[in-house]
């Protein structure tokens, strides 16, 4: 496995030109992750969370400030930065194992062994020959995660990957993602609107405000794993995150799941 990476964001700002007027999306964003850390970003709609993730992925290079992965500037997309979208984006004509391998030859013994390892890791043993139409939404998303992890990314970027799932499946996928993280120890950066999801998964939570997007606070989540969603300590941290979101918020612009 590729060693987990430290992600460093320093003085990051981003603007778009809107009919000759600068639209400021992100303002002076700075934070570091520790190698192998699980960090979530939460904030109201329009605070630039997804834009920030695209910049970290190297998909948007038109910005000010620095983005460093293991001390090296992020200046292009690459396999050391895995990206999981809300939609799984599987190839419908390929089986689970072939979707995971994608452009890699399954006949290669090394690739075959790695694909089998990923299938076990995401709990899809027995579904190797299934097609996406035969899978649930949660299973399809696990295939997408396995495909990304097969490339040994230093950091896994997740843009609301469970937002389209029902509550029961979302909870199950959060637990599955934690199992993958604990075993793989890939540095993870998750964008979410879901406060419970952020508290359940994260070592730390970056709370953002909008117009322009900026960091309000970074909250440590000092709870042991596995976490009890109905426990007193969990609920206290959930309330702390909600209060941080509500402080100086604009009700007309802000939406999040509580």
From TrEMBL:
A GO term for molecular function: ATP hydrolysis activity
Superkingdom of the source species: Bacteria
All copies of domain ABC transporter, residue ranges: 7-235
Annotated PROSITE patterns: ABC_TRANSPORTER_1, ABC_TRANSPORTER_2
Protein's UniProt keywords contain Ion transport: no
Gene3D superfamilies: P-loop containing nucleotide triphosphate hydrolases
SUPFAM superfamilies: P-loop containing nucleoside triphosphate hydrolases
UniProt entry tagged with the keyword Nucleotide-binding: yes
Entry keyword set: ATP-binding, Nucleotide-binding, Transport
UniProt-recorded name of the protein: Sulfonate ABC transporter ATP-binding protein
Organism: Paenibacillus rigui
